[in-house]
């Protein structure tokens, strides 16, 4: 091993090593920090350390196709009719349904047969809180069957909050992301109740007050940025500032409206213009730099859908994630199928082939990549175009971490 094979970054918790030959990033805890730095700086011979690194890299390969994240679609319906909804009113073109408590037990018993290491449970919809009994039943099941509870998360419009669910949120520390599109005047133009003329904004703020009275806070607000925002003069910066100030939430996610048109491919020229405009920001954006060094975000190319994560609907149908419910050709099976392995499904094989085509396993930027598998259904070469840009981002990240000359760093081998 040569010192030049590694780029390292020391922080308060430990050390991050980027291994140039294998293009792998590993995070070591604090107890290894001084020893690692001593080795890298002095290039000492240390077979024990060498074996440790090799085993770490090999361990990453061993963990392939291990389900650690499940997404439960507790409600295949919604109480809102948002103007820009991509999911057909929360139904994804399927029949409206609510996940039943007995189905939850069947789902979790099924999941326990393919994985005993669930780390995260996401509740999704539609509006997941309409299926709140399924949420509570899920938490109770894990409390009974796991020594250490997984992390429970939910994305909700937060207009419906029964007292029983509020108690469960507090008890099981459910991490909440609320969908809200900014001030009342813009939010209530886009996010409206399906069957009543009430203010969605008011309903959300009232439930936030109920939560705060229990000394509990939401983690994030998710905002969908649309043409209506532009018409009314709201920039993304305006929205972020408003939401942070008025709701005392640091994590604000502002996403562009999802356009669904299978006949059209994303305009690569527009995408390139957008990506290039963000490069300067990326050079100095500490949040993004830290993200690529964080265990929670480290991956191995593209999202986890269908490999580390699956989504299950109220009927027990299994998909790589909720977005794939719009296209049943990517269905992985059903929990009630007998003797059927989801890793033998056509859907899984399609996803695996896409990774092979894109070269994910050897890509230098796979640790920070979060490209969406589902978009390959709706686009052609855009995914490959994004790969080049993400590798470019990765070079800037690493250069920012260790003040390495970007021209020199660009010479590192990457898969084209």
Rounded to an integer, what's the Rg over CA atoms? 23 Å
- Average of the residue pLDDT scores: 77
- The residue ranges in which pLDDT falls below 50 over 5 or more consecutive positions are 57-63, 260-298, 402-416
**Could you say which structural class the secondary elements and strand pairing correspond to?**
alpha/beta
Could you give the distance between the termini?
Answer: 26 Å
Strand order of the largest sheet: 9-8-7-6-5-4-10-11-12
Number of E strands = 12
How many helices does DSSP assign? 15
Q: Tell me, what's the shape? A: globular
Q: How would a textbook summarize the main sheet?
A: 9 strands, mixed
H/E series:
EEEHHEHEHEHEHHEHHEHHEEEHHHH
Strand proportion: 5-15%
